[in-house]
Amino acid sequence: MTNITVVGDASEVDEIKRVVQLYVDGFQGDMEKFQEAFHKEAWIFALDAEGAVATDLISDRFERWANSQRSVKSRFIAVTQAGDVASVLLGFDNSENLEDSWVDVIALLKIQGTWKITNKTAAHSSRAAWAKP
Questions:
Q1: Which one of 46, 64, 71, 109 has the largest count of C-beta atoms within 10 Å of its C-beta?
Q2: For the residues of 52-109, what is the DSSP string, one character each?
Q3: Would you say residue 132 lies in a domain?
Q4: Distance between terminal CA atoms of the chain?
């Protein structure tokens, strides 16, 4: 197992990782996993290999992502928790083509007792220095 850097008390690291894993697993065609993982107003900022930035409400991508049937694997690099706020540095590795992998910084809030992803900032792995696969 890869070593994960944990910052803060991270007393809920397993639950935080479970929610982030729902996002990764949704790419196997399960939009309900996306809906469970993300707050309905969550945003994405993504920097592609050419340096172009795309922004969207993440929910606008659910259907396309679920239909993509991408073979991806999560690589938890770091988890930080401070009470009801957390972040995850995640390797989002394309199992079929590592050249099409990403590194995400995922922000979460614990809202009414439930962890939700509120923001995903991603960079193509070619722009992620030491964090690429």
A1: 46
A2: -EEEEEGGGGHHHHHHH---EEEEEEEEEEETTEEEEEEEEEESS-GGG-EEEEEEEE
A3: no
A4: 14
Global pTM value: 0.90
118-132 per-position pLDDT tens digit? 999 999 999 999 899
Residue 42 covered by a domain: yes
**What pLDDT does 10 receive?**
63
**Residue 47 to residue 106: CA distance in whole angstroms:** 14
Give the torsion through C-alpha atoms of 84, 116, 87, 96, to 10 deg: 160
Position 133 in a domain: no
Question: What CATH number did the domain enclosing 18 receive?
Answer: 3.10.450.50
- The segments of the chain whose pLDDT lies below 70 read 1-2, 7-10
pLDDT digits (tens, 9 = 90+) for 41-52: 999 999 999 999
Structural domain range at position 13: 5-127
